[in-house]
């Protein structure tokens, strides 16, 4: 919310420097996000009269104007349809600044434009559509914009927390600042509504007392609707709104000044009584923004005898809005209960200045004073005819009284929570300054909360008020007492171990979004429609929760390749969301397309292949002290069928490893693209680390050259050797060969075996016997033969 | 004197041949060695071709040993050959030894900067006595909002633009629900941190992302005060950003803490600009009530910080989207 420092200064004395004010407001919890110096941002912009307008030769939407600032005449091209000769506008000449950007002479469709005529949006005032800023006739050409619009006083951009609805106005901010600084507050509100000239036939009914506690309507007749005074317009503009007419502008002015949203109806458009009720089935309302809205039965409306005329607390209706022909108005002030307003505003996707305040809770007690202030401003409006304007007797319907909040408070609570002591006298002064009423008793105080502080309900809330006004910098710095029993005692987490291992092995970690688009399900084994879907994604590419990490990692893999990063070894660790299940297992995914060395100068280099990635996982398992895994060939989505395997350890399927299918690859990769995914939560417990004695006897090494069928897998052979051979300590496949002179359909495997006994040195005979035993077993089981020369 | 039997010859070769290879220092000597032992009419060939002369029961054994020896010698020979050629710089055609040629490195690898920052944050708090816990990324309305004193239709929900699943659950908008899970399961006192992914319905830009990371902290005991919270966070900031970093605590609002604070930091070189880094406060009694803690006996503080924000400030990253684009030219800088 914007706070105009010159407006604020009408109610409380401000420090001379704006940065001091901003810091103090931030210190008491009213955070100043930015300070806007519109005079500086728009330096050089000045008033100029449009002397002559000629049409553009080729573009009907453009006009060529001669503008004069009193000292020179220049040509300006404008697209503003309402520009009129003889009128004065704000002109940003070349060299001036417009909302911080320097203005230059530019060509528009073939014609030079020396600067431009400004809209309030271009000046950084409003965010609405481009319409030229109208200046009053008395403004002479050549005057700086900062003087005309009073831009010299900086504007504060406040980022208010939702509990501080009492500060959603200049008066509210001034009140909190005055309390913090112990200053006097000048409240612009009259103490009560004017008595009113005459009774009218006005009648108000509240049919929804929980949603509307009270409702006041003030009939005003003899109203003249016109442009509001330039003083009002300037403030409205600086608050970011476009001025409409005096009645609407003054109502908004009152809102920004004293914080209570009020609404003016065209009284001639209403058929009495005014009824506050819930909408009925199939009722419709066209709101001020010209939207025809289907109302729900939960929507609170202000209706007349026939139909809804306003969406209560959110927006008025178009039919009964104040227009140029309005003569009598009905000014509404009311207290609407926050949650109902909030759900209406949300259901209709309509957030207004009014709903923003009602849903945070406005002052239920003092809105008549805000009405009185608004009526006072009507009376001061130069457009009104004193003789004509008549404020009549108001009618209030009160369905429910606002509860008086009384909080029992023990002053020592402050020290208990905050950690230092503030004396009772200081505490009670502080609370009184905020408008709270403190009755000090010995043991427990009674503190009455004013109606505008709906956020104060409990003793802790009072502690916050005191500590906030004392200033957080007063709080000492201490350290909590450590509870040693509770201090962490665990090994490095699996996730960190895996991450550190992969980084050390040359892999780069990625972090991807947890959701993806419908065509990104390349590796998921459960069909896409069974995934978890978001109900309100920002984009369809963020709709589906990922089932596998490879799916999201593959996208960043390809993006990297496209960006020229051709050596890729990537991994990600993160949770996945298997459809239907409530579990969120932690996965690891790896994708690689890389040489075994960074480009190297000799011929020892090559692309990583399947066995390199398998080896990486073997090393990872070894380092994690996990049992060895096995790979089972099985067709999996996204993998080449012949190089697609399931990783199995201790009878559990824990992941997959394979070469990525060519069909998925968008680019021409010179080497194989390999991928793996592991369910880290599914891994077995690591083997306990414990010492077992090793033999100090000499080893006996033997090579075993076997010839087997070409499709014979190695692992069963190796397993058989392990189970058959006594004293076998190590087995290592060191050669694999097929081709001449071996017969077709055969391959040779060379194992190096290392034998060792614990207690003695093995004799050749003993080892020969074992070797023979191995050989005959392999012959029987796998038709393996010894390779001869 | 008869010729040595093939077996005797094999014994001799096994003991002498490796040693002889060791003595070879020039390519010429190596070639002589190759002819002598491994060549077409070398000694190993001779043994294998005379295998018919030995008793048939010894044949497999001799064959095996001869083959094994041949392989062993061939391998050693190749290794030796490599050494001899690379050390004899004077040899024609072989380049002189150049220690400045690049070494063989595999790709360098890098931890994601978010995890780098996250691990450091966790490390600092664990050393202060906090235990790390994790919670689910998919949450219910109760844990994400209700139990944290954010009822439905409360404007505080505007601070959390939430992504909902079709089944009505939601992606947690902060790591604070982990607090609730832990307090439901454990009795006080406790001191925990909860790092993890969080989600909001924010379009990605320089400073927003629908996926981001937070670390939540919670300390509950009989007398944990705001002053303790201040000390804890000051210590954290000084360890994470350096001891010269300045801190500012200012009042704020979170439904699950009262009083609440926002913490800004200022680097000396940043010239007065205060940068918001985290939110904190004393645990609101409503939160304790929701998990059944006795508010007369227990009090505590909680804090939550955005990892992206901290990492950006620590490493000088100006665009949050870089974290999720995963371009190696970015990642490999860390």
Protein model, in words:
The complex is a heterodimer of chains A (789) and B (334). With 789 residues, chain A is of the alpha+beta class. Chain A contains 18 helices and 40 strands. In chain A, the strands form eleven sheets. Chain A has a seven-stranded mixed sheet with strand order 28-31-32-36-35-34-33, with helices on both faces. The longest helix of chain A is centred in the C-terminal third of the chain and has 19 residues, at 764-782. Chain B is an alpha+beta fold. Chain B has twelve helices and nine strands. In chain B, the strands form two sheets. A seven-stranded mixed sheet of chain B has the order 1-4-5-9-8-7-6, sandwiched between helices. In chain B, a hairpin with an 8-residue loop joins β7 and β8 (275-283). In chain B, α1 (6-23) packs parallel to α4 (59-87) and α2 packs antiparallel against α4. The longest helix of chain B has 29 residues, at 59-87. The N and C termini of chain B lie far apart (76 Å). The model of chain B has no long low-confidence stretch (mean pLDDT 87). Chains A and B meet through α8, α11, α13, α14 and β28 of A and α4, α5, β1, β4 and β5 of B.
């Amino acid at each position: 919310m914007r706070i105009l420092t010159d407006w604020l200064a009408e109610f409380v004395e401000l420090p001379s420097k704006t940065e001091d004010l901003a810091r103090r407001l931030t210190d008491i919890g009213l955070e100043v996000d930015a300070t806007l110096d519109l005079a500086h941002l728009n330096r050089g912009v000045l008033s100029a009269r449009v002397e002559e307008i000629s049409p553009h030769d080729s573009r009907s939407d453009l006009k060529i104007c001669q503008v004069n600032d009193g000292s020179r005449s220049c040509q300006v091209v404008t697209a503003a349809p309402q520009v009129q000769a003889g009128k004065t506008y704000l002109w940003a000449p070349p060299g001036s600044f417009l909302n911080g950007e320097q203005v230059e002479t530019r060509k528009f469709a073939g014609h030079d434009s020396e600067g431009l005529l400004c809209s309030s949006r271009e000046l950084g005032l409003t965010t609405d559509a481009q319409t030229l800023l109208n200046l009053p006739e008395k403004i002479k050409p050549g005057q700086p914009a900062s003087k005309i619009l009073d831009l010299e006083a900086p504007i504060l951009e406040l980022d208010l927390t939702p509990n501080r609805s009492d500060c959603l106005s200049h008066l509210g901010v001034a009140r909190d600042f005055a309390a913090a600084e112990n200053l006097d507050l000048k409240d612009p509100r009259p103490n009560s509504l004017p008595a009113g000239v005459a009774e009218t036939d006005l009648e108000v009914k509240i049919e929804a007392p929980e949603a509307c506690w009270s409702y006041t309507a003030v009939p005003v007749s003899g109203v003249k609707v016109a442009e509001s005074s330039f003083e009002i317009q300037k403030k409205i503009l600086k608050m970011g709104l476009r001025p409409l007419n005096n009645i609407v502008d003054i109502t908004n002015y009152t809102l920004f000044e004293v914080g209570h949203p009020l609404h003016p109806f065209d009284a001639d458009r209403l058929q009495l009584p005014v009824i506050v009720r819930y909408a009925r089935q199939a009722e419709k309302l066209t709101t001020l923004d010209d939207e025809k809205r289907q109302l729900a039965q939960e929507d609170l409306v202000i209706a007349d005898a026939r139909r809804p005329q306003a969406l209560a607390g959110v927006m008025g209706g178009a039919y009964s809005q104040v227009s140029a022909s309005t003569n009598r108005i009905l000014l509404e002030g009311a207290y609407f209960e926050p949650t109902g307003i909030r759900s209406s505003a949300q259901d209709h996707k309509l957030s207004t200045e009014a709903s923003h305040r009602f849903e945070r809770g406005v002052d239920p007690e003092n809105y008549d004073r805000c009405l009185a202030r608004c009526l006072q401003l009507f009376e001061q409006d130069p457009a009104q005819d004193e003789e004509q304007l008549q404020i009549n007797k108001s009618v209030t319907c009160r369905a429910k009284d606002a509860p008086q909040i009384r909080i029992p408070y023990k002053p020592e609570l402050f020290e208990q929570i905050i950690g230092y002591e503030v004396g009772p006298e200081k505490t009670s002064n502080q609370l009184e300054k905020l408008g709270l009423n403190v009755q000090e008793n010995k043991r427990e105080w009674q503190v009455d909360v004013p109606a505008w502080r709906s956020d104060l309900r409990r003793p802790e809330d009072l502690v916050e008020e005191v500590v906030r006004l004392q200033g957080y910098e007063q709080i000492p710095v201490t350290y909590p007492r450590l509870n040693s029993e509770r201090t962490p005692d665990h090994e490095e987490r699996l996730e960190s171990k895996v991450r550190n291992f992969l980084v050390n092995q040359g892999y780069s970690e990625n972090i991807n979004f947890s959701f993806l688009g419908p065509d990104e399900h390349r590796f998921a084994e459960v069909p896409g429609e069974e995934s978890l879907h978001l109900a309100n994604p920002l984009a369809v590419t963020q709709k589906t929760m990922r089932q596998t990490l490879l799916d999201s990692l593959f996208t960043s893999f390809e993006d990297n390749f496209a960006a020229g990063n051709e050596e890729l070894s990537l991994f990600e660790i993160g949770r996945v969301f298997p459809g239907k299940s409530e579990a969120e297992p932690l996965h690891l995914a790896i994708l690689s397309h890389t040489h075994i060395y960074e480009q190297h100068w000799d011929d020892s280099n090559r692309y990583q292949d399947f066995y390199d990635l398998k080896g990486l996982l073997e090393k990872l398992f070894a380092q994690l002290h996990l049992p060895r895994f096995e790979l089972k060939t099985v067709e999996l989505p996204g993998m080449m069928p012949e190089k697609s395997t399931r990783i199995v350890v201790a009878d559990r399927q824990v992941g997959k490893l394979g070469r990525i299918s060519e069909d998925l690859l968008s680019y021409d990769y010179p080497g194989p693209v390999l991928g793996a995914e592991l369910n880290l939560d599914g891994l077995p417990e690591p083997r306990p680390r414990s010492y077992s004695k090793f033999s100090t006897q000499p080893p006996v090494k033997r090579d075993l050259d076997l010839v087997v069928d070409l499709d014979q897998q190695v692992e069963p052979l190796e397993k058989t050797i392990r189970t058959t051979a006594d004293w076998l300590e190590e087995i290592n496949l060191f050669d694999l060969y097929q081709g001449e002179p071996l017969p077709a359909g055969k391959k040779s495997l060379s194992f190096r075996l290392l034998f060792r006994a614990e207690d003695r040195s093995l004799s050749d005979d003993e080892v020969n016997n074992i070797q023979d035993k191995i050989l005959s077993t392999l012959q029987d089981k796998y038709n393996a033969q010894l390779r001869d020369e | 004197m008869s010729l040595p039997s093939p077996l005797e010859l094999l014994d001799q070769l096994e003991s002498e041949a490796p040693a002889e290879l060791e003595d070879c220092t020039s390519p010429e000597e190596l070639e002589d060695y190759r002819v002598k032992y491994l060549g077409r009419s070398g000694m190993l060939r001779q043994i294998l071709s005379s295998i018919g002369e030995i008793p048939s029961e010894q044949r497999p054994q001799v064959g095996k040993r001869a083959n094994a020896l041949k392989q062993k010698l061939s391998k050693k020979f190749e290794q030796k050959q490599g050494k001899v050629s690379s050390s004899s710089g004077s040899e024609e055609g072989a380049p002189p030894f150049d220690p400045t040629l690049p070494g063989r490195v595999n790709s360098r690898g890098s931890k994601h900067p978010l995890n780098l920052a996250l691990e450091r944050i966790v490390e600092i708090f664990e050393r202060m006595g906090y235990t790390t816990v994790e919670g689910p990324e998919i949450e219910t309305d109760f844990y994400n909002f209700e139990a944290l004193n954010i009822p439905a239709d409360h404007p505080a929900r505007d601070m959390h633009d939430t992504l909902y699943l079709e089944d009505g659950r939601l992606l947690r908008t902060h790591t604070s629900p982990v607090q609730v899970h832990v307090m439901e399961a454990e009795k006080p006192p406790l001191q925990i941190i909860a790092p993890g992914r969080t989600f909001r319905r924010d379009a990605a830009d320089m400073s927003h992302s629908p996926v981001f990371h937070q670390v939540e902290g919670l300390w509950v005991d009989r007398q944990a005060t705001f002053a303790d919270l201040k000390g804890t966070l000051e210590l954290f900031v000084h360890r994470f950003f350096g001891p010269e970093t300045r801190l500012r605590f200012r009042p704020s609002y979170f439904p699950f803490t009262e009083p609440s604070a926002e913490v800004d930091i200022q680097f000396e070189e940043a010239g007065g600009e205060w940068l918001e880094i985290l939110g904190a406060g004393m645990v609101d009694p409503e939160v304790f009530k929701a998990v059944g803690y006795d508010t007369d006996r227990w009090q505590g503080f909680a804090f939550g910080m955005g990892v992206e924000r901290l990492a950006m400030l620590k490493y000088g990253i100006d665009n949050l989207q870089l974290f999720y684009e995963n371009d190696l030219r970015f990642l490999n800088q860390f």
